[in-house]
Structures are given as structure tokens and as C-alpha cells.
């Protein structure tokens, strides 16, 4: 699949969903539940394919080590690019930072990890039983579910009724979105230099920006379940670390704190940002998250097409 076709498949349902959500706001009530169901199905399929891989027991420790390396390098690069921006602006939150525990988010994360684990177990059982499957059909089903998931993401964003003009005109939000994206790409380059991961894959791993529901599926469809699981855990780690880093950083490093959840600053992680920094940072988080949501699919399709 070419880059243009890939971008069309990813972006068209997103903007269609945004349009529908903006008109039919009631659809937004059901989009979160629908997203969880579709994502769980996709992760189960990814786990199932992962369970079919030979020598899986030797591959999993390698994945774990690389996930740790990529996660550490990513956050260090994010800090190096965003903290100077905070220092120059000298903007501090007036609220006292507190570690926020969002148990609902943790429960959702646990459900998604369970989907992968159940998929792996099912894949291992099927391989042991000698069962055969039409993997082309399985890939087609995955792509269809992905389209509906992206459509639901657009509906969720559109139903929130963000004023697009205000979002686009927030200069600070746009600047930190560019800095954050550059820091992720630099992290991909650094990881390429210190690991045995090819450059295009290394850049793709760091371009997910926390949007594990999209990055894991695109990479799994393009390169296989090992790569899909790799980026899934890298992006999942970002969201989990954000539960601690956002409150800790907010008082002194506002922009750095807002960018820690990556693309999920716009939705899942917005309540954490609001509770940590007050209503004054909500507009910044929405603008940053909006642009990050646009960058991620473009970069993922670009790198998987290299």
C-alpha cells in the first residue's frame, strides 16, 4: 500500500467522524465504549498472531528490553526539548502538584493488556492444536475494525464541540506540539544508533506519541505482531507514566507536563492535566493534543511505507 493510500485510509474516516460528531453530538456518548470494544478486538487479534510466532519465549525478553530503552530515551528527549521552553516562558501553575491516580484509566489499561494476553494464549493453543487460519481474512477483518475505530475517534473528538478556530490559533500549543514531535523523532534516531532496530522502525516506534490504539494496529498490519506489540507497550508506558509525571512536573514545567501523555492529552489524559494544572492549561492541552493527533497517523504511514 502506498503512502497516499495509507493516509487516505487513516485520515478520511477520522475527519468523517469529526464531522458526524460535530453534527450529531449524541453519538459521542457511545463512542468511548465502542472504541474500547474495537480496540480490545484488535489487540486480541494482534495477540493471537503473536502467539503463532515461532520461538516466542526468546522474543518476548528482547521486546521487554527494547521497550525500556525506547521509553527512557523518549522521555529524556522530551524533557530536553520542552524544559528549555518552560524556562524561557517562566510560566508556573499556581496550584500545588499532587500525584493523581485515575483508577478508571488504570482499569482500562488492564483490560487492554488482558486482551493481548488472552490473544497470545489463544494463539499458542491454536498452534499447539495444529489449527489453520486464513490470515488474509484475519487481516481484512483487522483493517475493517481499524476503520471503525478511527471513525469513532473522530466522532469522540467532534462531539466535544471544541472551537476549531481557537484551537488552531493557540500559538503556544502549536509550538510545543512541533517541539514534542521533533523530540520523539530525535529519540527514534538515538534508539536507531544504540540498538539493532532499523531506522524506519525506530522512528515509527517513537512516532506513536502515546496513541497505542492506532500505532499498534498500523505497525502490526504493516510489519507483524512483534512490531505491533512493541509500539503498544512503548505507548502504553507513556500513558501510565503520565499519571505520575504530569502532577510532578506541572508546577515548574507546565509545557513539559502537558506534553507527557502525548496524543492522549486531548482526551484520556485531559482530566489528569486539568486537576494538576487547573483550567488555565486545558486550552493548551487541547491544542497540543489536537495537532499531535494529526501528526501521528501521517508519520506512522510515512515510516511504514519506507
UniProtKB/TrEMBL annotation:
Its organism's taxonomic lineage begins at:
Bacteria, Pseudomonadati, Pseudomonadota, Gammaproteobacteria, Pasteurellales
Name of protein? Lysine exporter LysO family protein
Pfam families reported in the protein's UniProt record = Lys_export (PF03956)
The record lists the organism as: Psittacicella hinzii
- Does the UniProt entry include the keyword 4Fe-4S? no
Q: Name one GO cellular component term.
A: plasma membrane
Q: Which UniProt keywords apply?
A: Membrane, Transmembrane, Transmembrane helix
Give the stretches traversing the membrane: 7-24, 30-51, 63-83, 103-125, 137-155, 175-195, 202-224, 281-303
Q: Name one GO molecular function term.
A: L-lysine efflux transmembrane transporter activity
Amino acid at each position: 500500500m502506498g503512502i497516499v493510500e495509507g493516509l487516505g485510509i487513516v485520515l478520511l474516516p477520522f475527519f468523517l467522524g469529526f464531522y458526524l460528531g460535530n453534527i450529531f453530538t449524541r453519538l459521542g456518548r457511545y463512542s468511548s465504549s465502542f472504541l474500547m470494544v474495537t480496540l480490545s478486538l484488535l489487540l486480541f487479534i494482534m495477540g493471537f498472531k503473536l502467539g503463532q510466532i515461532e520461538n516466542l519465549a526468546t522474543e518476548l525478553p528482547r521486546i521487554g528490553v527494547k521497550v525500556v530503552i525506547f521509553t527512557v530515551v523518549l522521555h529524556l528527549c522530551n524533557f530536553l526539548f520542552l524544559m528549555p521552553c518552560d524556562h524561557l516562558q517562566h510560566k508556573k501553575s499556581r496550584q500545588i502538584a499532587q500525584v493523581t491516580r485515575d483508577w478508571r484509566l488504570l482499569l482500562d489499561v488492564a483490560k487492554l493488556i488482558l486482551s493481548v494476553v488472552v490473544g497470545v494464549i489463544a494463539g499458542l493453543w491454536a498452534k499447539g492444536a495444529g489449527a489453520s487460519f486464513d490470515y488474509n481474512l484475519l487481516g481484512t477483518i483487522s483493517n475493517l475494525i481499524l476503520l471503525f475505530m478511527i471513525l469513532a475517534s473522530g466522532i469522540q473528538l467532534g462531539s466535544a464541540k471544541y472551537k476549531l478556530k481557537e484551537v488552531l490559533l493557540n500559538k503556544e500549543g502549536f509550538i510545543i506540539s512541533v517541539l514534542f514531535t521533533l523530540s520523539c523523532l530525535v529519540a527514534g534516531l538515538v534508539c536507531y544508533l544504540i540498538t539493532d532496530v532499523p531506522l524506519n522502525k525506530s522512528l515509527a516506534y517513537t512516532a506513536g506519541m502515546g496513541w497505542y490504539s492506532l500505532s499498534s494496529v498500523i505497525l502490526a498490519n504493516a510489519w507483524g505482531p512483534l512490531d505491533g506489540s512493541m509500539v503498544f507497550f512503548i505507548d502504553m508506558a507513556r500513558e501510565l507514566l503520565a499519571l505520575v509525571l504530569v502532577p510532578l512536573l506541572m508546577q515548574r514545567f507546565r509545557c513539559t507536563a502537558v506534553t507527557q501523555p502525548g496524543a492522549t492529552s486531548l482526551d484520556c489524559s485531559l482530566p489528569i492535566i486539568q486537576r494538576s494544572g487547573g483550567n488555565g492549561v486545558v486550552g493548551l492541552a487541547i491544542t497540543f493534543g489536537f495537532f499531535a493527533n494529526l501528526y501521528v497517523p501521517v508519520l506512522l504511514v510515512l515510516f511504514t511505507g519506507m
